[in-house]
Amino acid sequence: MYDQSQLMKGIMEGCILSIIGRERTYGYEIVERLREKGFSDVREGTFILCFCSLEKKGMLRAEFMPSPLGPSRKYYSLTEEGRRQLEVFATAGGG
User: Fold this and answer.
1) Per residue in 41-63, pLDDT tens?
2) I need a surface site. Which of 15, 32, 68, 83 has the fewest CB within 10 A?
């Protein structure tokens, strides 16, 4: 039997990689796109844990950049490992 929470986490990580794979973007923008795509019941802390997990696994690179509307924002981009994982996700039918 599979663990539904792990399945959801894997899908969410794949979707995050897919969004970032299109363009470098910041956390709030990613969360908004995910919510538009059906992750509306997911708590913000869960998204943050996914970002941190992907960063620890070497799939994301993060850097703070100035924001025209206030404090600096943390922008994410894919590493080579992140691109490989995105390809695996897309091949499996998730992207």
Assistant:
1) 888 888 899 999 999 999 999 99
2) 68
Q: Is 35 helix (H, G, I), strand (E, B) or coil?
A: helix
Q: CA geometry: angle at 68 spanning 65 and 69, to 5°?
A: 110
Over residues 10-23, the pLDDT tens digits come to 889 999 999 999 99
Q: Contact 30/12 with Cβ under 8 angstroms? A: no
Tell me, letter by letter, the H, E, C secondary structure of 68-84: CCEEEEEEEEECHHHHH
- Residue listed under structure tokens 């929470």: 5
pTM (two decimals): 0.87
Residue 26 bridge partners (DSSP): 75
